[in-house]
Amino acid sequence: MSLVRRNLTSKDRSKRGFSLTELLTVLAIVALLAALLLGAILGANRKAKNIQCASNLKQLGLGLSVFVSDFHVYPLTGNPGFSKGLYPEHKTSWISAVEKNGISPDGTAKKHFFLKDWWECPAAPRPSSFPPKVLYLYYGYNAYGLGTGNDGRTLGLGGHQKSDQANAPDAPVLESEVAAPSDMMAIGDGFIGWNERIRDGAHLLWRDSQAAEYNGSTSRAKSRHQARANVVFCDGHVETVVLRSLFEEANDATLKRWNRDDQSHSERLQP
Fold first, then answer.
1. Residue 64 needs a FRET pair 20 to 30 A away by CA distance; which of 3, 70, 71, 209 works?
2. What CA–CA distance (Å, rounded) separates 265 from 199?
């Protein structure tokens, strides 16, 4: 009789299934695995977008190298100079260099400034908070170098000119004027920054005291590449640079990367 009772008890237990504790344990394990998998997928997605952005800049750097090789000067800042009839052959040559290196997505000639909307950073969709008529540009040119300078001189690549873009540029920067091409930033994610303020969607890469927050721009800039920016240098190599290094640090090594004379010009850090 006791044997029958024991068998029935064992059979009853087999029908009972998992206990609440066992179910909770299994669910916790499944949730943990799902979180790990989701994290891996998101991480891979971010890495792929970062690689595509770096590839865009690499191609822009190739076009820049061809232009400099042809003319031994760097492109001017943008349309204002070209529209005034200054160095019109530079505009044509830049378009040619871009297409020659396969960096025009549809292979057709472009009639506007080279950093407008040819290339989109996949990690930076146009913000819905931007008014329709406000351009959102993905990559910017290191036209001015560090700050504006009280004397109006610029230290970037965009020509010997004042920082006011309404003024016609005087002359392009000579290839020989860039003292350290491997350590001089040329084109990068379109950020204008100063300490804790970053404006995104700009056609410039610039550390300037007039940088201002615009519709949550600082947060967007920090989230684009996990608080970093992709930058192509004058020699064509690409780096992913920490935003703090670009817009906050004040050591000589970080400051001189803005300037064609390979000097830090820390005096320009004063607003």
1. 209
2. 23
